[in-house]
Structure formats: structure tokens, C-alpha cells
Design brief:
The chain is α/β, with parallel strands linked by helices. The protein has 10 helices and 13 strands.
């Protein structure tokens, strides 16, 4: 039995690592794509997971496949496409570690996944099915995503959703919001950035956003707010954490680290929100918040996932009220 199966984009993040006096930037090749990042956290923290998606049958696609296999992610449904190139993203960083993106995705392999290429048996044998919206920006991956989501729901799987909004990849904001609403209508648990939550709910205040999200019949919702920490809620209670202190270098993948940590710890604690106490959920979110902050202290997304023992040590120290 797999813990989590994720469907979506898998791409190359060329992350800025330096800039000389003339302003010439140097970039480092890293694996990227939010669903894959989430799985990487889960796998590194002891979970079993599989990825569904498509990359080019090129040097970048081979690199991505090898990177996932190296961290024990099941890649039997990673399709290698000889007709389309692997999608590339260039990630530039400002002096605070915040990101700006440029994508090379026209006819990229990740948006060419066909419904007929999905291995539904993998979905049958998982506990959680996870997806985002970037596989819904274009056909045929839009149809493939909906096909997989609806199958997972029919199989009674826990549906996990994180929009991972990137404005440059959408025709317009309304199209993105429509996809977010679709995802929320099928999700059981969801994580959104504050920007995404504001877009899809039309609210501005975080507390109003999360209350509006719960109207989609979610059992759990989290809103990540960068330097303002995170807000989370079930149908019974609401809680929050401030930003965990970190020496921020690169925020790429921090939200994915948060959600991957939450998912694996959620499964380790029965995987049923209704059966978890407010204190236990609070502890799971705290650990996710710590892991996300620690991930910002290194560059890249998958390479920056912190060691679990380091996260646990900080979690215990924080619980004991130590500085």
C-alpha cells in the first residue's frame, strides 16, 4: 500500500546560485514541480509514494527520473515523452530569498499527459491522492487530472489539494480560480498560500479566507503566509503559528515541505481528522511549520528538505518552551 500518490508537473528548476559584479547570473539545475516536491518530503520522512506525470525523453527528463528514484519514489507511471521537451523554470532570488519565475513550457511534456496514460491501479493502492492546478492549465493534462481526481474520489481515497498558483502559466486569473474551485470541491484536506486563498474566496483577512475555504466541506485547511506564519482550521477549531526563525536563503519549495510534512505526520496519526485531538493536529502543524522554515536555509526545493531528526529536535525544543 502506498501512502501518497501525486499527479502533476515535474520540471527542472534552474535556481540562481550567484551573480557577478556585472550582474551575470549563474543557475544550478534542481528537480522541481510542487507535487514531486511534496512526495520527496514524504519519502525522505519514511513514507511510500508514487508519482504520475510526464517528462521529456531528454537529458532533463532522465535527470528528473533518476532524482525521484534515488529518493525511493515509485516512477512506474512517469511517462517519458519523445515528442515534447521537459519543462524548464528559471528561479531568480532577491536579497530576501523571495523568488521570481520564468517558464519554458510551451508544449512542455508535463501538460501533454493523456488520460489513457494514467495507471489507475496505482491510485487504487494508495491512502492519499494529491494534486494541484498546474496540470490543469492546458489540455490534455487538464482532462487527465480530472480523470484521476474523480477516480480517486470514487475509490474513497483522501484527496489532498494545493493549487500552487503561478500567474505566468495561466491564460488569466479567472481560469486559475475556476481550477482552484474544482480542486476544493473534491478535496478533503487542502493547503493554500494566502494569495491563493484570497483569490478563490474573494476575502482579504486570513481568518475570513479560511472560514470560506471550509465551506467547501474540507475537514482541514491550512493557509501559509510566509513571514506571517500559518493559519489552520478544522470544522471544529482554528489555530495559528508565527513564522519559525530561520536564516532565509531561498523560499522555493517551502510550502511543499510544509504540506509534505503535514501529510506524512497526518498518516502516522491515523489519517482521520475527526479522530485527532486539537492538540495533536496543532503538533502536526507545528512540525510542518518548522520543516518549512528550515527548508528556506538552503537553495532549491528537494535539495533543501531538512533532515527529520533536525526537525524533531526543534519541535521538541519549541514544545518545551525553549528559545
Amino acid at each position: 500500500m502506498l501512502d501518497v500518490v501525486a499527479l502533476g508537473e515535474l520540471l527542472i528548476d534552474f535556481t540562481q546560485i550567484s551573480s557577478d559584479n556585472a550582474g551575470t547570473r549563474c543557475f544550478q539545475q534542481n528537480p522541481g514541480g510542487a507535487p514531486a516536491n511534496v512526495l520527496a518530503v514524504i519519502s525522505k520522512y519514511g513514507g511510500k509514494c508514487a508519482f504520475i506525470g510526464k517528462v521529456g525523453a531528454d537529458m532533463f527528463g532522465e535527470f528528473l527520473r533518476d532524482q525521484l528514484q534515488a529518493i525511493s519514489i515509485d516512477c512506474r507511471n512517469l511517462v517519458m515523452d519523445s515528442e515534447h521537451n521537459t519543462t524548464l523554470a528559471f528561479v531568480a532570488l532577491d536579497d530576501k530569498g523571495d523568488r521570481s519565475f520564468n517558464f519554458y513550457r510551451n508544449h512542455g511534456a508535463d501538460i501533454c499527459l493523456l488520460p489513457s496514460e494514467i495507471n489507475f491501479e496505482i491510485i487504487e493502492h494508495c491512502k492519499i491522492f494529491h494534486f494541484g492546478t498546474l496540470s490543469m492549465t492546458h489540455e490534455p493534462s487538464l482532462s487527465a487530472t480530472k480523470c484521476a481526481v474523480e477516480y480517486a474520489k470514487a475509490c474513497g481515497k483522501i484527496i489532498s489539494f494545493d493549487p500552487n498558483y503561478r500567474a505566468l502559466l495561466w491564460r488569466d486569473a479567472d481560469s486559475a480560480i475556476e481550477a482552484m474551485k474544482y480542486g476544493l470541491s473534491y478535496a478533503d484536506i487542502a493547503k493554500l498560500s494566502i494569495e491563493e486563498a484570497q483569490m478563490v474566496t474573494g476575502e482579504k483577512e486570513p481568518e475570513k479566507c479560511i472560514k470560506a475555504l471550509l465551506e467547501y466541506d474540507l475537514s482541514f485547511a491550512a493557509v501559509t503566509m510566509g513571514a506571517q506564519g500559518c493559519l489552520y482550521s478544522t470544522q471544529k477549531f482554528i489555530g495559528s503559528y508565527p513564522e519559525f526563525p530561520a536564516k532565509v536563503i531561498d523560499t522555493t519549495g517551502a510550502g511543499d515541505t510544509f504540506w509534505g510534512t503535514f501529510l506524512i505526520k497526518f498518516l502516522e496519526n491515523n489519517g482521520n481528522i475527526q479522530e485527532l485531538s486539537a492538540q495533536k493536529i496543532s503538533e502536526i502543524v507545528l512540525m510542518a511549520n518548522i520543516a518549512a522554515a528550515m527548508s528556506t536555509e538552503k537553495k532549491g526545493s528537494i535539495p533543501s528538505i531538512p533532515d527529520l531528526d533536525k526537525v524533531i529536535a526543534a519541535f521538541i525544543k519549541n514544545k518545551n518552551g525553549q528559545n
